[in-house]
Each structure stands twice: as structure tokens, then as C-alpha cells.
Amino acid sequence: MKNIFKNVSERISNLSLNPPLVLLIGFALLILSGACLLNLGAVTRSGESIGFVNALFTAGSASCVTGLVVVNTAYHWNLAGQIIIITLIQIGGLGIMTLATMFPLILRKRIGLQSRQILKEQLNLDTFSGIIRLLKYVIAFTFSVEG
């Protein structure tokens, strides 16, 4: 059994994913996980599921920060549903890699070249210079305005 997990782990680590593909997979996973959570009846005020297609649309809209909804957010979702939606908005707005890079920065760890390439792609920058400084400004500004 250990050999199976080791083999799968080796195959995953040997994959060379380019930065746009990593971002695409990250956003797809974010939207799908958000849709699965929003599809639960436990996050609505009525206790009934909204349906997967509507949950998928809501999660996609929140993650991509478009603001389109199929139901009134304040009246349809209970507190748990609203927290899921605001979390999707926050992660989508700041960006998956921005948040993923924030924790190594807090722990004063170095950011590797692959992470910098993904950040460069996400932030639509031409060069690598100043990526981490820009990232620190974005995070500080966001939390100072929202806090």
C-alpha cells in the first residue's frame, strides 16, 4: 500500500505544471469546493439545497469577483453560507497564490522560483523584480482597509 502512495506522490512531484495551468487548477478547485459547500442545505435559511448548477454559478461568481447572484444573498443564505461566499470573494479577489505565499512570508521563509513565476503570471507582471514587495503591499493594504 505504501508503494502505491509513493508511486502516486512521485508522479505528482514529477509533473511540470506551467504557471497559468497552476492558477487554472487552483481556481477550478476553489470554485468546485465552494459549489459543493453552497449546495448543502445546511447553509441556506430554508434548509433546502439551492441545486448544484446555482451553487456552481454562485461560487464561480464569488471567486471571480463578478458579483452576479441567482438568489438574494442576505435572505437566502444563513451565516454559514454567507461566510462561505465572503471567503470565496476574499480568496478570489486577493488570488490563490497571494494567500498561499502570505504564510511563508509571515514565517520569514524564502519564496521559490516556481512560486515567483506563478505570482508573476497572476499579478500580470513583466519581470520578477519587486514581486515580493508588491505582494506585501497588496496584503497590507487589503487587511488595513478591511480591518
Structure notes:
The protein has 2 domains: 18-94, no CATH class; 96-146, no CATH class. It is 69% helix and 0% strand. The chain has 8 helices and no strands. Helix 2 crosses helix 3, helix 2 (19-38) packs antiparallel against helix 5 (79-94) and helix 2 (19-38) packs across helix 7.
Task: Throw out a few tags for this protein.
147 residues, mainly alpha, 2 domains, 8 helices, 0% strand
Q: How many discrete domains? A: 2
**Low-confidence sequence ranges:** none
Strand content: under 5%
Mind telling me the C-alpha Rg? 18 Å
Cα distance spanning the termini = 48 Å
- Say what oligomer this is: single chain
Structural class based on helices, strands and sheet pairing:
mainly alpha
Give the beta-strand count.
0
The rough form would be described as: globular
Instruction: Tell me the helix content.
Output: 55-70%
The number of helical elements comes to 8
Largest sheet: none
Helix/strand order, N-terminal first: HHHHHHHH
The averaged pLDDT comes out at: 83
Short description:
This protein is an all-alpha fold and 147 residues long.
Question: Which helices and strands occur, and which strands form pairs?
Answer:
Layout lengths: L1 H13 L4 H20 L13 H12 L9 H4 L2 H16 L1 H11 L6 H10 L8 H16 L1
Helix pairs in contact: 2-3, 2-5, 2-7, 3-5
